[in-house]
Design goal:
Chain B: The transhydrogenation between NADH and NADP is coupled to respiration and ATP hydrolysis and functions as a proton pump across the membrane. Chain B: Its main location: membrane. Chain B: One of its GO terms (molecular function) is proton-translocating NAD(P)+ transhydrogenase activity. Chain B: Keywords: Cell inner membrane, Cell membrane, Membrane, NAD, NADP, Translocase, Transmembrane, Transmembrane helix. Chain B: This is proton-translocating NAD(P)(+) transhydrogenase. The complex is a heterodimer of chains A (277) and B (98). With 277 residues, chain A is mainly alpha-helical. Chain B has 98 residues and is mainly α. In chain B, helix 2 runs antiparallel to helix 4 and helix 3 packs antiparallel against helix 4. Classes of the chains: A mainly alpha (277), B mainly alpha (98).
Chain lengths: 277, 98
């Protein structure tokens, strides 16, 4: 019990450091300090989580952190200055994928009696948003890096396909509610989310990609929040919402700076393709 | 009750997000996005619990995979933001010199 309080106090501290970090990060003179402040918050939260009562084995956690840490550091060190935005997009996609996997893992716990329909629907949402973030970010990464044509891509019937996916995505929770514990619905959700992430990103031209990445960054925050609700972890909920909220505002600010309309960019899969140079 | 609690945080986070960054200069857009992106790797915290708890093999496998991807997001995200900001600082100096 004492440990749990200690872990949660560390989460409060981490949340404060994230907020202060973002604040400092938005001023040129203090930006670098802001990034370090936020990183310190993350470090504290990670270390203190090791005291969590549910964690009984550490080998796999350390192995995972080692693999991910080395890979992330190597990619961040190696990247050319000009390729940084696309790398951010790739990292963001990984964050979304992590939320998808975490959402899925909550559905496979051994004590499935404790799974309520609410938890399942929340896990479904984290899978959905995480999946869209992942595939959308990969397309943005590919478009920015010239791995695929950066021009707006649109095909006949795209509008109908998008509409169909959205309707299915809205209908699925009701199916899940009537047939819980059937994982196949969640696999369908993953497929839907991945396809939708691709469809939502390909009709957007390369010049608008920074805005898209910013929006997907906001989504990955929301995916973390949903995953946090599914596993009832406060720091995921709070930090995820913080990123979700500041991400959408930053997206709006970026749109204004580029003289673009956010709605136009968002709905490009439903309207005429937008040509932005 | 939990929904209300969530709604509270949502509203507060919305206002906070706006207050925190609404005056950000254009040059900091990308670093701020990158820095916020690193924070969204907070999924790692939940993934660690999932990977280390006593559960089915599938839960553990999914948890470990989530740990790996989230750590790439966290470590890479903070490091690349730091590099971006170093670049930004030297650019500022160049401008001032001109």
């Amino acid at each position: 019990m004492d440990m749990l309080i200690l872990v949660n106090i560390s989460y409060v501290i981490a949340a404060i450091l994230f907020i202060v970090g973002l604040k400092l990060l938005s001023h040129p003179a203090t930006a670098k300090k802001g990034n370090l402040t936020s990183a310190l918050g993350m470090f504290i939260a990670i270390v203190m989580t090791l005291l969590h009562k549910d964690i009984i084995s550490y080998e796999l956690i350390f192995a995972g952190i080692l693999i991910g840490g080395v890979l992330g550091a190597w990619m961040a060190k190696r990247v050319e200055m000009t390729a940084m935005p696309e790398l951010v997009s790739l990292f963001n996609g990984f964050g979304g994928l992590a939320s998808l996997l975490l959402g899925l893992s909550t559905l496979t716990i051994s004590n499935s009696d404790s799974l309520t329909i609410t938890t399942m629907v929340i896990a479904y949402i984290s899978i959905l948003i995480g999946g869209v973030t992942f595939s959308g970010s990969l397309i943005a990464w590919a478009k920015l890096g010239g791995r695929m044509a950066s021009k707006a891509l649109i095909f006949p019937g795209q509008r109908w396909l998008n509409g169909l996916i959205i309707i299915t995505a809205i209908a699925l929770p009701f199916v899940i509610a009537t047939q819980p514990f059937n994982l196949q619905w969640f696999y369908i959700a993953i497929a839907l989310a991945l396809v939708f992430g691709i469809l939502a990103t390909i009709p957007i031209g390369g010049a608008d990609m920074p805005v898209v990445i910013s929006l997907l960054n906001s989504y990955s925050g929301l995916a973390a929040t949903a995953a946090g609700l599914a596993i009832q972890n406060n720091i995921l909920i709070v930090a995820g919402l913080l990123v979700g909220a500041s991400g959408i505002i930053l997206t709006q600010i970026m749109c204004k700076a580029m003289n673009r309309s956010l709605m136009n960019i968002l709905l490009s899969g439903f309207a005429k393709p937008i040509e932005a140079g | 009750m939990e929904l209300i609690y969530l709604l509270f945080i949502l509203v507060l986070a919305g206002f906070l997000g706006f207050e925190l960054i609404h005056k950000v200069p254009a040059t900091l857009h990308t670093p701020l996005m990158s820095g916020a992106n690193a924070i969204s790797g907070v999924t790692l915290i939940g993934a660690m619990v999932s990977a280390g708890s006593d559960n089915t093999q599938l839960t553990t496998i999914l948890g470990v995979a989530a740990v790996i991807f989230a750590t790439v997001n966290v470590v890479g995200g903070y490091m690349v933001t730091d590099r971006m900001l170093s670049m930004f600082k030297s650019k500022q100096k160049n401008k001032e010199a001109k």
